[in-house]
Amino acid sequence: MPMxxxxxxxxxxxxxxxxxxxxxxxxxxxxxxxxxxxLHELLRPVRLRYEELTxxxxxxxxxxxxxxxxxxxxxxxxxxxxxxxxxxxLCGNCMLPVDLVAHL
Length: 104
Fold this sequence. Notes:
Helices cover 42% and strands 0% of the residues. It is mainly α.
């Protein structure tokens, strides 16, 4: 799944915040329940911008919020998957200890 750098993430996060405010305003104005609120349409700008930035169509707007490079560590030297956090001591995919990475 394509990841966003900090500049890209800030842009998408602002679109997400704007959509959230629009949903709150809609609910107040229409006295609508959450189920009656057109969240999919209100969050459309988030999905479209993510697609423009990454080429990945129709990614769920909540998933987009987890595709931020800074949340993860560098790629594992053995399997290539990103470490689960920048401070990870072990690859969550192949279980290689990070301190062994220098020896590979």
